[in-house]
Amino acid sequence: MADSTLREGAHDLLTVGWGYRDPVRFGVLGPLAVWTADGRPVRVPEVKVRALLADLLVHEGRPVPADRLVDDLWGEDPPGNPTNTLQTKVSQLRRALERAEPGARDLVAFQPSGYVLRAEEVDAAQFTALLARARAVEEPLARAGLLADALALWRGPAYADFQDEEFARPAVTRLEERRLTALEEQAEVRLALGDHSVLADELGPLVAGHPLRERLRAAHLRALYLSGRQSEALAGFDEVRRLLADELGLDPGPELVALHRAMLEQDPALAPAAVPATSAVRPRPNLPVPIAGLVGRREAVAAVRASLASSRLVTVTGPGGVGKTRLALAAAARSPEETWLVELAALRSGDLAQVAEVVAGALGVRDETAGGVPAGDLAGRLAEALRGHRMLLVLDNCEHLVEPVAELVLTLLRAAPGLRVLTTSQEPLAIPGESVHQLGPLGRDDAAELFAARAGVTPGAENAAWVAAICERLDGLPLALELAAARVRTLGVRGVAERLDDRFTLLSAATRGLPPRQRTLRAVIDWSWEQLDRAQREALCALAVHPGGCTLDASGVPLDLLEQLVNRSMAVAEPQPSGAMRYRLLESVAAYCLERLPGADRLLIRRDAHYADLVERADLYGPAQRQWLRRLDEEWPNLRVVLDRTRDPGMTVRLAWYWYLRGRHQEGHRYLAAVAEDPEAAAWARAFALLTGEGPADRGPVTGASPRARWFLALAHLHIGDAARGGELIDSALTGFRALDDQWGEAAALAGRAKQALFQGDLALAERSGADSLARFTALGDRWGQLQAADMLGYLAEITGDYERAGRFHRDGLRFAEDLRLWGDVSYRLSSLGRVALLAGDLARAGEFHERGMRLAAEQADRFAEEFARVGLALVARRSGDLAGAEAYLRESLAWNRRLEDGYGVPFYGVTLLLAELGFVAEQRGEAARARALHQEGLAAARTIGDPRAVALALEGLAGAAALEGSHEEAGRLLAEAAALRESAGAPLPPAERGDVERITARIRAAGH
After folding, report:
1. Are residues 581 and 679 in the same domain?
2. What does the record give as the DNA-binding region (predicted)?
3. How many domains are there within the chain?
4. Alpha-carbon radius of gyration of the chain
5. What is the rounded average pLDDT of the residues 82-102?
6. Residue 663 sits in the same domain as residue 702
7. Are residues 163 and 239 in the same domain?
8. What pLDDT does 679 receive?
9. pLDDT of residue 286
10. Residue 246 DSSP label
11. Does 1 map to a domain?
12. Of 571, 612, 623, 964, which has the maximum CB count within 10 A?
């Protein structure tokens, strides 16, 4: 989630071109639909926003002028301000897309010629491309597959929910014509393949809906005739001849006339091509009819069908329980050929002869000399029996018989050119021409849909979190989810989720109607385990002690063994951005292995030592910071189990900076507090306690801690606005850094000093320290440090009115934070850019920046960053004239700051601004007494903190209250005092921030003073 909000801030509002383009798919072949890259539906709320999206899609990437969009959406009843209203709808559409997929808001762009939707994945375009591919293919079977895949994209009439809109009608007409043409082409190729009996029935309703389409009618008449229904075919010709005459005044075309004559003469040329047959094969296929629908596999089914259209051997691989058999049956169900299923699971072991016997038996191929026939002869006889057939043979559960199955399949494919084979196996057959489709677990939403459907529950707020937990912990495996769903009736959703630590007991109730190997979760994994040799089992257990997956080096397993486990779908190999591979187990497989773990102590000790060494080598304080942060992100699940097992103070302290950079303050505090007997860990733990609000600020001495620990404690004090204590610790740490010649530490201390000086109103010191820190961090190549120093310099530029410079610093900071994935800092930078936009007078942009900053902060549970954004929204609201909205934001923030003051026992810097803003709201409403009270309270807080700018702000507020009361001389004196204070601090009010002062001054002048 963090990525989505981050990229919102880096797109559209900035012009630096940080390009992310994650695919979002659009559907217009049916009701308007949007899906994420992994198939999750995207909700686009509000009818006008959906109409806008439809209008942009209709234009297929061409710009649409704003006035054209307004006319299309509102017609003769436009809104009062159509341009602004359209911009609002565009923003709503962008937000809907961005919530679904990071960077997707950038798909909706504005150009001088109008708005454009840069949609690369639209089902209508995919449909057209598949049609083109089909027309380029000569082989009828392949063409039939491509046409079937193209037509499968249709979910209903094109633009079904906007068919009556004028802007959609041309596209609807065009797409419907393409669909009908595709149906006609499909009918013709199915006739060539001999599928006339089924086709005769299927085309009847279509012809009734489009009775004047001669090409469609010709296909239907031919199918009726070839099915032995000649009288119906001749009646159909008479009907179309009459309709053409009555409706259009035309005669049938030459193709229809020729077909009619051929039917009357029973022309042999109408007969389908002869298909060689053998009496040794039974005449009817044996595919079972599925009892329950297939959830979440639409694209996988389409992919397997597409592979079958271009390859004669397709193997669906994947772990046990992932749904390989169901996928294969769904893909085979619409095959134009006769289709046969052969189950191989019951044959626990065997050679070529035994496998051939099972296949021959399922197909009804008789072997009249079966006794003692050599294996090669039996396989050859089976191949001869299939030679003249067009057939799809589905071989299910081949993993325990891979070698004999591969040998038989190769023999059959060489002998029978009309044969295609679809196999399911935990590993490929590895023979020439094989197309392998790796089937993975269900995605989050599909897994939840499957579980809810099988459990008979309605997903809602009350159980959504529990359902999500079940789906995640069961790895999205359909069989495991169905076994879990069966326990919901007795345990409830929450009860099932809470018992998954003992999953093999929980999911042990035998399910009727399934093969024994699939009736319990343990049986599913037993089936795979039994096929492994001893070395493979030990390798699997070595992987199991790494809950987050691991690299080849970390596993301690030879590469060839890892490859064997991956090929058998027992382990998953995932390429990393670096190009290296990462190996992991599904959680259920890992749990199974941990129960059987041989030599547990040896494996655990080796693992712990590996990750302790990794943390020792991690360098988070220099140019390799980005790489090491991401490496530790990858390894965190493994690091966590090592910390939990070893409670190593040294490793814990070395990870403290990682926890801070990643914004995981509570986690850091918990681990550090557990080893707080170590003086270094105790100092870091005190700092994290401040960051998390675990108690009042501890101002006691810091003994036995390094300069970096003291500096970090100073950073935490400055974070809560405790400039005095923060300054003391900064001085102490800086002395230590210089004694150690710690260049990074000195740069960090200078950044802290800049922040302290800013709090205390010493802008010159803040500028010097910030600039020095930035130069040092830049030389060191530390992006976090550059971010912090640029942050201070950006705030200073805001104060002096140099908004261009402030924006540049904050944009640099956003880029650094984005690169390091420091989401809390990203939120602050977005809000800071919002402040700059506010000061520059662009309130709409300011609001968007602050909203994004607040949303990201909320996602990260960073309340400090959230409040910073909330205050910004209050500033935007007041300057927009929305006093009620401003007050609501300010009251909420003030209450939170008050609670922090009570909890920490120190005054909070932000309180002065909040009181001043509330006072200005009251003054603008004409509530003089209330305004005076708020500003007096703010003045007292500002004097406690000691910031002259905060004091000046409170004095300006009191001047407004006095002017409102009619005390104009007092008001003038207060304004003059405030201006002098600002001058003395080197921060006179820049023009963009003089709005309140100018309003008060105007009131004084209006009274003649």
Report:
1. no
2. 11-119
3. 7
4. 36
5. 86
6. yes
7. no
8. 92
9. 61
10. I
11. yes
12. 571
